[in-house]
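Support request from a user on the community tier.

User writes: "When I paste my structure tokens into the form, the page sometimes reloads and wipes my input. The last time it worked, I copied everything first. Here is what I submitted, just in case something in the input itself triggers the reload:"
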């Protein structure tokens, strides 16, 4: 608020009785200077005691100031006491209501104005149009536009700008563009309206083109231009555009605004450039919960789970920073993906303490966390205790049963959900079909899919078809799976063929696997994982020429598969191991435990499967590589740091390799430990030398 000259006000008050003649000018002069509430109340009282409450001019000035201070109640009270309202009176109230997001009330006041035979002017029309735009009232908005045109009014910059913004919010960009191009005069607000319209409606290239044109015309950008431009760069999906906009923001001096910085963080987070996002975050002098939560989501989505948990702990230490449901959902997602059960329990307790436990989004994240940490009993207990369950909660519980290998329970939940009156959505069917594939439930899975085909509200997509192919492929029905693909209403994509290739590996169908791999390489010639899968399939069948061919292709294209890493949580701290990592602080202790572990399981019958390795090195080197797979290192560390009989929980980013799967069986038997391993596909519970997947993964 601007400071008020109280000496001038006091001087005016003491000489009030001597100035009754020029009082109107004095009131007007003072009201124009007032920007603060206390002197406003004082001058309002002075007007009342002076007997000028029925003066329209003074009342309009008072209304305008009360609107400026956000006191709509006072403004409305003055408005309804004016005996002779004019267009300005109506316009001030309508404008105030719209600026305070009271859109419905603003439209009602506008209707009363029209019924009362008051003719709105350009300011009235430009003030009420945003109400139609924000409520999506297309027909009424168009009617007011027609009223303006039929009235024969000349083009007005403010009205035309408001109309461009309105049609943009309606998604009618062709109309907005025509209006914009037909404007005889445009200012920065007009350009912002068209740029934000294109940006908000997904026309990112057009938004950037108009921004460039705006610059060429020499218009100075403002905060709203920048905030419209950043979402456009996100939609383009090109990091180079985003960094260019970041540079522009710095040059124009808007880099210190917290909203701009948060939007810039969003650019880097969306491109998984977590370090760049954190650099912007660190530069913010004052960080609100939105910035903290966005950074947390960035760590989580970028698989920097240990950093996510550390960041969340820092959030908890901040004063005057209240957690919201988005922050809790993000950290629960990190705990879920990293298998951090102890941290997840702590966050669950925090959700209860902050009264977010009954939030649907937090609740579904709690279910997902427990299920993905292999603690299905706690997931069920929480799910059954929920007062209100939406589709997302049911989906989380169905998916949790599926990933833990309880396909029959997942189907039962699916039927219970339908019986509760909730309609399954696309994700529900994906979850239950995945559960059927992992549990080897063929007949029921196909029945669910064909029921979905008959359903009117869910249309199967490629993801659902890939699930059915997985069900058939895992069951060895490769011919049926091929026929199913040929009769799909869609063109098969990478995921569909990759699913079938995985089934070919399981059932060692080299001929079909080779045919499918060629189709995959046409779609994704640089996908290293497919070459690895094909080579492993050849190796399992003893086709060493095929192995050499796959290796040669991998080398010639200079491709590398994603590095494997495994995480284990001990005492609420996550430890992550990379395959072949030798710079870990406790490497020598882990190495000693690894040698002891390998020696023990070899005596029990373990033989390293060197056939799965693509490297052209000696057998001894291959064995050393296998021994230092991330999963084995995490298991060795877990054996070192936990008490006997403690369950060892590990999360792995890739599919468990055949050698680690075999070694885990022996480790569970020799060391009498339960190993709960979550890989990219499912959970494996190793106990007494047997895996819960029944070697079906």
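"...and here is what came back when it finally went through:"
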């Amino acid at each position: 608020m601007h400071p008020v000259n109280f000496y001038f006000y006091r001087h005016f008050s003491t000489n009030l009785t001597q100035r009754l003649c020029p009082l109107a000018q004095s009131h007007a002069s003072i009201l124009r200077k007032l920007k603060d509430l206390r002197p406003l109340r004082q001058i309002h009282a002075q007007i009342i005691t002076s007997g000028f409450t029925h003066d329209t001019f003074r009342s309009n000035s008072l209304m305008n100031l009360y609107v400026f201070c956000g006191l709509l109640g006072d403004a409305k009270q003055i408005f309804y006491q004016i005996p002779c309202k004019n267009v300005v009176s109506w316009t001030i109230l309508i404008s105030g209501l719209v600026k305070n997001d009271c859109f419905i009330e603003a439209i009602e006041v506008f209707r009363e104005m029209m019924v009362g035979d008051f003719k709105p002017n350009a300011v009235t029309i430009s003030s009420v149009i945003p109400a139609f735009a924000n409520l999506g009232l297309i027909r009424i908005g168009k009617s007011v536009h027609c009223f303006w045109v039929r009235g024969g009014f000349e083009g007005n910059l403010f009205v035309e700008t408001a109309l461009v913004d309105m049609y943009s919010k309606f998604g009618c960009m062709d109309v907005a563009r025509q209006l914009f191009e037909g404007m005889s005069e445009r200012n920065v607000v007009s350009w912002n309206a068209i740029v934000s319209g294109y940006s908000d409606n997904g026309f990112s290239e057009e938004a950037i083109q108009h921004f460039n044109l705006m610059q060429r015309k020499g218009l100075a950008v403002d905060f709203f231009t920048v905030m419209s431009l950043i979402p456009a760069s996100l939609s383009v999906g090109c990091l180079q555009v985003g960094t260019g906009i970041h540079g522009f923001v710095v040059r124009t001096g808007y880099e210190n605004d917290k909203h701009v910085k948060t939007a810039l963080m969003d650019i880097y987070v969306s491109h998984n450039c977590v370090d760049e996002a954190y650099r912007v975050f660190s530069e913010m002098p004052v960080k609100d919960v939105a910035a903290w939560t966005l950074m947390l989501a960035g760590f989580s989505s970028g698989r920097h789970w240990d950093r996510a948990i550390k960041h969340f702990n820092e959030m908890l230490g901040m004063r005057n920073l209240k957690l919201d449901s988005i922050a809790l959902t993000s950290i629960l997602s990190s705990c879920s993906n990293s298998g951090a059960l102890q941290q997840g329990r702590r966050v669950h307790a925090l959700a209860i303490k902050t009264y977010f436990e009954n939030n649907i989004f937090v609740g579904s994240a709690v279910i997902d966390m427990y299920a993905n940490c292999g603690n299905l009993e706690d997931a069920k207990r929480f799910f059954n205790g929920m007062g209100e369950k939406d589709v997302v909660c049911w989906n989380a519980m169905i998916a949790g049963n599926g990933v833990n290998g309880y396909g029959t329970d997942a189907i039962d939940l699916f039927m219970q959900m339908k019986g509760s009156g909730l309609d399954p959505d696309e994700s529900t069917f994906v979850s239950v079909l995945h559960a059927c594939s992992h549990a080897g439930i063929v007949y029921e899975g196909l029945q669910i899919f064909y029921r979905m085909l008959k359903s009117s509200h869910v249309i199967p997509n490629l993801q659902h078809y890939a699930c059915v192919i997985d069900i058939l492929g895992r069951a060895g029905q490769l011919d049926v799976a091929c026929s199913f693909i040929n009769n799909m209403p869609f063109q098969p994509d990478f995921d569909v063929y990759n699913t079938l290739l995985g089934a070919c590996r399981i059932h060692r169908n080299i001929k079909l696997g080779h045919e499918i791999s060629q189709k995959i390489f046409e779609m994704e010639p640089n996908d290293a994982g497919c070459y690895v899968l094909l080579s492993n399939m050849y190796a399992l069948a003893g086709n060493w020429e095929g192995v050499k061919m796959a290796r040669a292709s991998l080398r010639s294209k200079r491709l590398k598969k994603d590095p494997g890493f495994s995480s284990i949580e001990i005492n609420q701290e996550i430890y992550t191991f990379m395959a072949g990592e030798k710079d870990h602080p406790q490497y020598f202790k882990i190495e000693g435990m690894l040698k002891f572990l390998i020696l023990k399981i070899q005596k029990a019958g373990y033989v390293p499967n060197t056939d799965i390795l693509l490297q052209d090195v000696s057998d001894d080197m291959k064995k050393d590589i296998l021994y230092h797979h991330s999963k084995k290192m995490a298991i060795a560390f877990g054996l070192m740091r936990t008490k006997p009989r403690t369950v060892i929980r590990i999360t792995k980013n890739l599919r468990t390799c055949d050698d680690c799967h075999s070694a885990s069986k022996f480790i569970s038997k020799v060391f009498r430990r339960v190993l709960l391993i979550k890989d990219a596909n499912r959970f494996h519970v190793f106990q007494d030398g047997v895996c819960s997947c029944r070697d079906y993964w």
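Agent notes: The reload is a front-end session timeout and is unrelated to the input. Confidence is low (pLDDT under 50) at residues 1-28. The first strand starts at residue 565 and ends at 570. Escalated to web team.
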